[in-house]
Design a protein that fits this description.
This protein is mainly α. The protein contains 17 helices and four strands. The longest helix has 32 residues.
Amino acid sequence: MLRQKITNSLQGKEYFGHPSGLYVLFFTEMWERFSYYGMRALLVLYMTQYLLLDPERAAAVFGYTALESWLISNFGEQTIQGISSHIYGLYTGFVYFTPFFGGIIADKILGQYRTVYLGGILMAIGHFLMASEQLFLLALVFIILGNGAFKPNISTQVGNLYKQGDSRRDAAFTIFYMGINLGAFFSPLVCGTLGQTVGWHWGFGAAGVGMILGLVVYYLGSDLVPKDVMKKDDKKEKRPLTSQEWKAVWALALLCFLNITFWAIFEQQGNVLQIWAEERTNWDFFGINIPSTWYQSFNPAFIFIFAPLVTKLWAWQNRRGREPSSVEKMGIGCFLCGAAYIVMITAAKVVPGGEKGSVMWLTMTTWIFTMGELYLSPIGLSLVTKVSPPPIVSMMMGVWFLSSFFGNYLTGFIGSFYSKMSHDSFFTMLTVMGVVTGLIFYVLRKPVSNAIGKQV
């Protein structure tokens, strides 16, 4: 049996100083992210260029008429782009909402191992349901629920590979994070190309195949991943928080609130920036027309290139006593994300309406806000684990991801104005949001440090 042979050959072995189970989880997550980002690369284009373009086709989608009525009653008349943006925001928002419940299911009922399987199967079903236009919204629901079961628990399994205090844990998550970005890099090149050149459903089908491959990897290496850790209520761990801990909680809650703005403008790369890539960018290279969804590979590629350099920069600054605090880094990240859109303001003014400009506009924009991501996203996660009072650290992590839920939903709401405003005005709005929020982070750095009770 292949599974047993793999187990026998890899059991107890380490590669690059880490247990073989880490690489099982690495490739499982890589294929899962391949499926998720492959589908996301096509989502807005599929809605604006095909599914919602024909009113009869749109009306045939199960649940669409009711959703459209709800959007119009709450936000006024909507263009096709506006409705697509709202759907994109709701979808990506709930992707970050359901992991909270997926973690509870694993902790109390199924365990991490079976919950990861459940999530992968639900996502695969969702991707293949995309082949039916009528079941489009139902397919999104399956992917949302599947992601909620899958994402928090495979990350938990990475941590469970190591004993408490093992110095290799941070490096393990860095390796795991590279798996995420590896899948995110290749998925637009495969799924996006198939969807735009062969047919939409070929792209969505490829995303489904990616999820199946992830489940196969997980099954074949299942004996190498950690056993389930089921949590039970322990009255000894329950205690009232001290006044200092409550101050830290409120300080973190404030930072999470500010984090909403970052994700609202950062996630436009899958929404309005993908539309710009399709409609206003020249993708002809030496006579070869490259699919615009390749744009979605820019962000993970820049992470691969610049994450090690940013880490070295911080180490260099630390040796000189000049490394920014965590709150300052988050402020820099938000500032950069907003400032990146200055490039798009220029592009909107320089590239004539109806014509296509250089891909360098998107390249520069994405590079700048990827640098912002490196300053904010991993730093925020680390800050939550360092500062949260021990009795509620999991809940505070849930609050952090809840900010991503609101931020991604806001992405859709803000993006709905793209077809109602001039493009330079729209990008100016995003610039102001990011820069102002970044400055607020900077102003609050000392009060937050005082509330937390230590310099972070």
